[in-house]
Give the backbone structure.
Amino acid sequence: MILSKSSRLSEQVLNGEKVRLTFHYNNREITRFVNSVFTKILAKTDMLYLQGPVENVTRELIINAVKANSKRIYFKKQNLDISNPEHYEEGMTSFKNFMVEQMEQLPEELKESGYRVELNLRKDNDGFVILIRNNTGLLPFEEERIKMRLDKAREYTDFADIYMDVADDDEGEGLGIPLTMLFLKNSGIGDSSFRIVSNGAITQSSFRIPLKTQAAEMTNIIRDKLVSEISDLPTFPEHIMELQAMCRNRDVSLNSIAHKISLDPALSASVLKLSNSALFMSPKRIENITDALKIIGLKNLNAILVASTTRKIMDERFSSFKDIWDHCNRCAFYTKLIAQKVGLPKLSDMVVLSGLLHDLGKIVLLSANAELTHQIETISVNRQMRTSTALEELSMGISHSSIGKMIAEKWNFPEYIIESIAYHHSPLSPEIKNIDAVYITYIANSMCLIEENKFDFLFMEDEVLTKYSLNKKEDFDALHQSLKQQYAEHPDNLKLN
């Protein structure tokens, strides 16, 4: 239903029709629907790179509109005169708690009160206009506060500066306006079209997405440091590259490959460990490398070569992040079984590597600035962002997906792995060629993030779920529970380190 309706509305906008969505309260389902409309509009205009900024700005403006309406309900319940500055300060000290504690009954109260929020979309010759309107006006001192926040926000060029300088206040606007302005400015959309106006009865926020954007100049010191780090990464050891070449040569015998492996004790241990795992259900214990290769095959051997070498280099170069590797191990396990479940058994051995390596870039980000990276992740979860990549771009000039892609390209990984790393948070990019590998990695990673309370089914892309008949939550959950159970029974199957 969401998929078909969002497709229809996006077509109306693209055809020049005005589209209006009216609701009383924002929840994840509304957020997902709005995001779905934007995704389709941006994809069809070759501007999907703006997906993150547009989604996040729109969500911030909707949240602010709902808060403004909710504020009126709260003050009335407290018998406080919202137009009285003293009453206003008194009420705002507890309003934030009200928003949390009354979360379940707020939608009904907003509906009964007649308070509403409108999202208006239209296309003109210059681009797309997005306007959010709520039917409460700004008080004079509210208007003055917003003006001050806007003026201050225009000075920021970096998310780190915002976080250090702006403490989230009782109204929750401390971060909201600066984030909005920075998303617009640094995405190339520009902040010159951004407006917040009120006539006493109506308040509306608006911005324009131009058909042609001008990317902001990236002079971020952290970004330059990260790019330099990637450039300085060593290549794969010679004996590993020789083994990869031997795997591709059909004239090379298993005994020759086995002998080469035996010269590397750590690699030998990984090969034997995998061959004796439940994945291959060998009737007897495998004790030598040649027998192990007969069991696992050369594709799985290549997975071990790439995964083990990658981890060794990353752990030596940067800090060792066990949590990330544990997440990747689980994701790899899920990718293999998902590929089998959706009728793509030939892909199952390939996508293991996509799962194992999809978060390479996060290791580099954490090594550069662990505190800031954790702050970004926390804010992304708390503000119900679908991914942290947009905030990473703002704060460091580059996302962990982009960093991972650069590393994968440096080490000449296959194209399907490069794309899976680059798009594991944004699987609808029109540039993707290896759709199934990217989609399966996206699903597996999403399941892992759901388990970590960092994601929600409602945020997932309909197109991806529909392709594999997983768009019904009960079907998705059933598959997820099955994978969780199997992983719990065999947690070490794909730990190739």
About this structure: Residues 2-210 form a domain with the Heat Shock Protein 90 fold (CATH 3.30.565.10). DSSP finds 23 helices and five strands in the chain. The chain has two domains: 2-210, 227-489. The beta strands are 19-23, 117-124, 127-134, 195-198, 203-210.
